[in-house]
Amino acid sequence: MGLTDEQKRRFDADGFLIVPGVLTADQVRELRAFFRPKFGDPAVRTPGDTDRILFDIYNRFPEVRWLLFHPPAVAALRDLLGPD
Q1: Which among 7, 6, 30 has a CA at the least distance from the CA of 77?
Q2: Which residues of 21-33 are buried (b: 16+ CB within 10 A; e: fewer)?
Q3: Is the dihedral of CA 28, 34, 36, 42 positive or negative?
Q4: Secondary structure, 3-state, the chain
């Protein structure tokens, strides 16, 4: 992936980083279609969730666990955090 020094500095300063190209447009569409209904479903909400944030998504929604091992995401994380 090869994040730039500027991207790494932004991550350090802001605590987050938008990395273009980690997900395809189709993957983004599928994830949005999956998650949008969850925000309006009180049965899905847990303490701490908001209208814009759902916590602990990988534990709660096994359908999205593939993101944890998605090669472009792993590459970006390795660039930010190192190989270990």
Answers
A1: 7
A2: ebbeeeeeeeeee
A3: negative
A4: CCCCHHHHHHHHHHCCCCCCCCCCHHHHHHHHHHHHHHHCCCCCCCCCCCCCCCCCHHHHCHHHHHHHHCHHHHHHHHHHHCCC
Q: Are 3 and 18 in contact (CB under 8 A)?
A: no
- Tens digit of pLDDT at every position of the chain (84 positions): 589 999 999 999 999 999 999 999 999 999 999 999 999 899 999 999 998 999 999 999 999 999 999 999 999 999 998 888
Please report how the helices 71-81 and 5-14 are oriented relative to each other, as an axis angle in degrees rounded to 10. Answer: 80
The tokens describing 6, both together, are 């500027």
Global confidence as pTM = 0.80
